[in-house]
What we know:
Layout: H1 9-23, E1 27-37, E2 44-49, E3 54-59, H2 61-64, E4 76-86, E5 91-101, H3 104-121, E6 136-141, H4 146-158, E7 163-168, H5 176-191, E8 197-204, H6 218-226, E9 231-235, H7 243-247, E10 250-251, H8 255-262, H9 266-301, H10 305-347, H11 350-393, H12 395-400, E11 405-407, E12 425-429, E13 434-438
Parallel strand pairs: 3-5, 6-7, 6-8, 8-9, 9-10
Antiparallel strand pairs: 1-2, 1-4, 2-3, 4-5, 11-12, 12-13
Helix pairs in contact: 4-8, 5-6
Keywords: Cytoplasm, Exonuclease, Hydrolase, Nuclease
Domain Exonuclease VII large subunit C-terminal: 126-437
Catalytic activity: Exonucleolytic cleavage in either 5'- to 3'- or 3'- to 5'-direction to yield nucleoside 5'-phosphates
Amino acid sequence: MPDAAPLSVSELNRHARQCLEGRFGEVWVEGELSGVSRPSSGHVYFTLKDDSAQLRGALFRQRARFVGAPMRDGDRVKVRGRLSIFEPRGDYQLIVDAVQAAGVGELLAAYERLKARLSAEGVFANARALPCPPRHLLVVTSPSGAAIRDVLAVLAARWPLTQVTLIPVPVQGREAAPAMISALGLLNRQSALDPARDAVLLTRGGGSLEDLWAFNDEHLARAIFHSRLPVMSAVGHEVDVTLADFAADARAPTPSAAAERLVPDRRELVGRLATLGERLGRATQARLDGEGQRLDHLRARLRHPGEGLARQRQALAQQQGRLRRAMRLRLAEERRRQAQLARRLLAHPPERQLAQAEQRLQAVRRRLATAAPRELSRHRERLAGVVRELQAVSPLAVLGRGYAILEDRDGRVVRRAADTAPGERLAARLGEGRLTLEVLERDNTPQDEPSSTQ
């Protein structure tokens, strides 16, 4: 058999390309992105792989404009394209027309269901204020990730006084959630021994939904909710929101933003202090100027104490002079009054007044000695007349003529026989003495002459 004519490499690659493109139409392939590159041409080159194989892919600029997925290393995607060979290098590749995130719909549905259940249980109700700045910040993240570098850089620039302790944990994969839960439990137990540990930052950089899925773990969300230490969560980029973010006391869109929220900016504080210092200096100088003017004014009003004492001495001398004059005038007046009283006393001596009063007293005594018996006799005569008149109308005088007054046991006067009863005891008042009588019989018939009752 004669030897066949050899094919050039270009011819072989062209035949292979034609066979691939003719044999396979459009296909959907699922795998994990790796080695994603975006040169200035606008094309996107990547490797699509699974557990045992890989396939090069190319997404040209005209199609890349219509792909909404970010296409990052580690993303799991579905791509639609056709198989081909890049003839100059003989590279077997997939020319991609469309890209979709693989498994996102199922993951998002599970995420929304778990989110609704935890929210109904109150796991997202934490709202404690984190200390600003914290004394000792506990950063739970990967020691090799960009998140810890960003956090440390921001803290060093803004507030280097905060003590930072890295708690190394995996932040991706099956071991990530249990490791973070264990770290939170350990930190809460140690916080009782070291009260200076006052805040926890749970953080990692961006990634696909699958990369961040550990932060959607139900048990991790509950561990954050039950943490005694306040927790800030900063997972992924600004558009990424995990269940850990909802369960935490505070959330930041990125690790750098978390560090900015946790501590103040010392440069701003220094600027504020400088501004306040300037304001204080101006206010102090203005106060000193005002007080200086006030002191000058008071100094101008102030007089030497000797002047005041001289005025007081002068006023005192004037008061003393007025007092002496007033005392001399009062003394002269009292002397004049005493002399006047002495002259009146000499003109009317008490001995003469006593003699005249003695004479008047003797005359009154003589008049009283003659008038008293006469007045007494007159009153006696008048009293005797009154007695006679009284005896004339007195019921006792009637009793002296033989009449009697009957009284019952209550002292009431008995005027009618009907007012008595047989057997009743009566008292009879006579002109002289009293009798006790008992009614034996009564006659109620009126009579011209009073009848005696025994």
